[in-house]
Amino acid sequence: MSSAPLVDWDLAGRTARRLITAGPSTTREEAAAVVRELHEAAAVAVAHVEKLTGLSPVAGGPVPEVAVVDRPRWVDANTAGMAALLDPLVEALAAKQDSRPGAIATAIGSRVTGAQAGGILAFLSSRVLGQYEIFGTGGRLLLVAPNIVATERKLGVDPADFRLWVCLHEATHQLQFTAVPWLTGHLESEMAKFVEATDLTTDVLRERLQDVLRSLTDAVRGGEGDSEGLMALVRDPEQRAVLDRVTAVMSLVEGHAEYVMDGVGPDVVPTVTTLRKRFAQRRKGRGPLDRVLRRLLGLEQKMKQYAEGRVFVGGVIDLVGMEGFNRVWEGPGNLPRIEELTAPERWVERVHGRPALPA
Predict the structure, then answer these.
(1) Which backbone phi and psi does 69 adopt, to 5 degrees?
(2) Spatial separation of the C-alpha atoms in residues 109 and 6, rounded to whole Å
(3) Of 26, 66, 250, 328, whose CB count within 10 A is highest?
(4) Tens of pLDDT along 28-44?
(5) How many CA atoms lie within 13 A of 57 on its CB side?
(6) Which of the 8 DSSP states describes residue 266?
(7) Contact 15, 114 (CB under 8 A)
(8) Domain 1-180 belongs to what topology?
(9) Is residue 276 predicted with pLDDT exceeding 70?
(10) What is the dihedral of CA 282, 284, 289, 294, to 10 degrees?
(11) Cα→Cα distances 199→40, 142, 194, 302, Å
(12) Coil, strand or helix: which one is 135?
């Protein structure tokens, strides 16, 4: 069984492509220059990230591809990636059931969720600046050129600095997963535990997913609606424990990237202070994307944890330095617990075995 019983990803992709808005106006020469400069910035960023973090890719490992894409190609990448993630999870869920859903119900249900997911993807396709693909490609860095150009124009910042700044963030994610090869397997294992803990049928799961997607669509349009979001899919305490662990990991990797993109300093990105100030102001706005993310995560606290990741990383480095912080990558047991995100000294005491003192 594929992920089709939950989402018709082909329909989601077609729907998203039909609804995608046009990017900023550029000449063919300008667009070509943006693509070239983003590739150059991504290459430059790698050395700066490795120098600041003290990490390096595992010798002999795969070299991640860097792809500068437009909005339709971002949609294609994400529909493929989500299908690659969902397939084994739905297979495992179906294997636990005594009966499989009927073909007609499956087809209708998957098309409903496919159309809903397509609308959300179309909306997000104009907001995402970049991402590092973990699942489905073996590792690939995507930079969404029209969104980077649109954002730098809106913020009124230096284009070269902004492009390198964005690449520093995404190159950090790339390094996290190439220098710490067990991290991908750990996340896949947690997803498997999530499935193992559920007793939902695929029919019930699909119905709940439809409710979540309907709520997200309402959020995009400015409505309030039900705020339970993805938590509607999570009822079992063991599943919520898995979600907490995954949230802590994602907070770590996001916070680490935030730390690095600012930590390189003005010698690398001359206007880094201005970039952070204006970007932070942009994030404060309770715009449509903010509403979608809050609805998606379901709880205000879940949004806070991504900001708390930056606090955790900076706090640990202040206490034990970068080398001491890098012990977080030694194995799953050293990953932060969700309660340690706002108390980095507790992580230091647990992992380093001593009271936390400034480095």
Answers:
(1) -125, 165
(2) 7
(3) 66
(4) 999 999 999 999 999 99
(5) 16
(6) T
(7) yes
(8) Lysin (1.20.150)
(9) yes
(10) 160
(11) 49, 36, 10, 24
(12) coil
